[in-house]
Amino acid sequence: MQRASLVFALAGALLLIGALLGETIPLLLPIATIAIGAALRFSRDTAVYLRILIGLIAFAHTLLGVLYLVDNHGYTPAAMDGFTPPLAMPVAAAIFALAMLAVGRIPVIRTIAQLTDPFFVSRETGVVQIWPFPEFRAQERVIGTVLLSIVVIMQFALVAISVRLSYWNRDWFNAIQESNADEFWRLLLTVWVFWVTIAVTMAIYQYAVRMTLDIHWRNWMTQFYTRRWLSGAIPYRMQVFGVQTDNPDQRIQEDINKFTTDTMGLTLGMLSQVSTLVSFSVILWTISSDFTFPGTEVVVPGLLFWIALVYAVIATYATHLIGRPLIRLNFLQERYEADFRFSLARLREYGEQVALLRGQGAERERLGTQFARIVDNFFRRVSINKRLIAFTSFYDYSNSVVPYVIAAPFYFAGQIQLGVMTQTAGAFARVESALSFFIDAYQRLASYKAVVDRLTSFEESMQRAREAGRETGEIVITEHEGDTLRLENVIVRLPDGTPIAGASQLTFRPGESVLLAGMSGTGKSTLFRAISGIWPFGEGVVHKPAGRKLMLLPQRPYIPVGTLRGVVAYPALENLYSDDALRAALEKARLAHLVPLLDEDRSWAQTLSLGEQQRLAIARALLEQPDWLLVDEATAAMDEPTEAAIYKVLREELPGTTLISIGHRSTLIAFHERRIDMRAGVDGVYRPVDPDHVPAQ
Questions:
Q1: C-alpha pair distances (Å), 175 with each of 30, 172, 182, 184, 219
Q2: Are 589 and 622 in contact (CB under 8 A)?
């Protein structure tokens, strides 16, 4: 951008010298070129997405400026007669570039840029194919910039074709008025057919490229947010810290989809309408350059343009006043719909428990309450939309006659021909439509703002979760070259800072089996999570042996949807282990009856009992072969003989693994060499106490 700014500044300086020396170069053109250079120069602090657009506008300015100079010096071919751009177009491009630069400083645009820019600066490698070109591999920022540039340039080209067809429309209706059949058919079969064929072909190709960019961008953003959400136990921290964003699944699946689609749609709409506004404003201004104000002899240069401007500004302001509440209501509608969908999915997951508790009535009441919120908010939106539709519909219907009503007096007075009248009406409609972009897109803009707010709040929630331990202190996890697991001056706190458990000096030796006992609520499970590194709140240091694998089995294991093979192998990929290894692990975990079902794809969380799920987690541990295994009541749903058999398998199959268990059954003492009790101190904080050595039985 900096080099390009210097090139434009130099070109502007040369044009300025030529203009001052008497060349046929209007002073506005070098000023506009220098302005483009300034926009490029100061865009370095602007959002990358906007920098790309400013660069494309600079390209359009260059093309328009060259065409203007060629025409100004009489070198335009006859085929381009009537199609060369006026001086106002390259000047308007410069004004648009400066406007984009100013828009980039608006807070809401900066917020949107935080969502758009990561893709357009990513150095990750991606692959894309655009027909008829072969597949190519490049950095994501290059792919995004190239695809966006193609789409935007084609959009400018389509506007240019519409301008050319405006002149065709004028000449064609003049031929009708003059009964010139030869000119009528020539214009139709040569000019119209030629440009419409190009426009249709370009529109189809632009759509294909745009959809390619849309899905490619969405794919990258989905992976980006999924990685950020799943890094560092963020989902767990968001829950325990109380910063849980409602329905993160919807933010990733639906809101990202809407964001990429609407960003492209609104960007192209804005660029199209602005370029249309500039192009047809010139036509409208030129036609009505000497029109008098109706009923007077006062000449108002560009009268039709000023009428269109005032007409659209008043309508735009009225639309904003009517539709402003939609932004908040759309945000709430997305939230209520997602909450209701989540509750239905959760009811499906816990159908057995609800049936056993006879909870159908309570569930109906809860679902009814949630859906009532949807209905109430829906009718609030309907109420606003009724007023908005009433106004915009009247406005749209008026647009079909207002241009003719304004141009008719000049036609009847003989100041313009029929072709000029239709061109005037068409240009007025295009200018008014461009100025009314805000009106037509208001509902979409309101929905887009809600999506931006939801993604932004999701990002903020993840960031707060990463910094969750900043106010309460954070437990530090370090690695050392020894072979022991040591807790040094550890205090585990709740998110509000309340201490619940501590360990000033606690050491676990390699290969031993330890039972961590105590009443419920004494912080045993929380201490386990601190050792695992997912509980940040507190202080002190956990010294872990370097290069050793640690695995925690919770009381209720996670069972993903998919094949049983993938469920057993989790968190590894399902093809990591051989069939023999999976079969052996299931048999040792007393799940031999599941071996024939390895390739079955179903919701196993609803198929397996809690005891079977816990034994499946044991099978995972046998496959994983961790150096340190933390068992958090992970056998509580098993009967005592099965539990005893499972612990025997763990000691036989994992002889080098340090086994640390949490449990309340007295029978667990027999399976461990060492017992630690969590007991309350005088300060109410529970700390581990080593009672007399309990020998293994």
A1: 39, 5, 9, 6, 53
A2: yes
Q: Does pLDDT of 614 surpass 90? A: yes
Helices (H), 43-87: 48-72
Q: Does domain 476-689 have CATH number 3.30.230.10?
A: no
Q: Residue 422 CB: number of other CB atoms within 10 A?
A: 23
Interacting residues of 173 by C-beta distance below 8 A, sequence separation 6+: 417, 418, 419, 421, 422, 423
b/e burial code for range 133-156 (CB count within 10 A of at least 16 → b): eeeeeeebbbbbbbbbbbbbebbb
Q: What radius of gyration, in Å, describes the C-alpha atoms of the chain?
A: 35
Cis peptide before 571 (omega within 30 of 0): yes
Give residue for tokens 């968001």: 238
**Measuring CA to CA, how many Å separate 659 from each of 4, 516, 545, 636, 654?**
65, 11, 15, 16, 9
Residue indicated by tokens 């991606």: 126
The SS3 of residue 74 is coil
- 106-466 classified as CATH 1.10.3300.10: no
- pLDDT score recorded for residue 695: 41
**Whole-angstrom distance, CA of residue 365 vs CA of residue 356:** 17
Question: How many whole angstroms separate alpha carbon 450 and alpha carbon 458?
Answer: 12
| Domain-wise residue ranges, the chain | 1-105, 106-466, 476-689
- Tell me the C-alpha to C-alpha distance, in Å, between residue 601 and each of 340, 431, 565, 578: 27, 58, 9, 18
Name residue, tokens 């290969």: 511
Token couple for 572: 């590894």
How many CA atoms lie within 13 Å of 271's alpha carbon, on the beta-carbon side?
25
Which pLDDT tens digit goes with each residue over 316-340?
788 878 888 887 888 888 888 888 8
| Cβ-contact 57, 32 below 8 angstroms | no
* 311 vs 429: CA distance, rounded Å: 11
519 three-class SS: coil
Residues 654/629, Cβ–Cβ less than 8 Å: yes
Structure tokens at 558: 């996670």
Over residues 79-94, mean pLDDT: 71
Say if pTM beats, i.e. exceeds, 0.70: yes
Burial class (CB in 10 A: 0-12, 13-18, 19+), 574: middle
Token pair 């350059």 is found at 289
DSSP 137: E
- In sequence order, what are the residues at sequence separation of 6 or more whose Cβ sits closer than 8 angstroms to the Cβ of residue 412? none
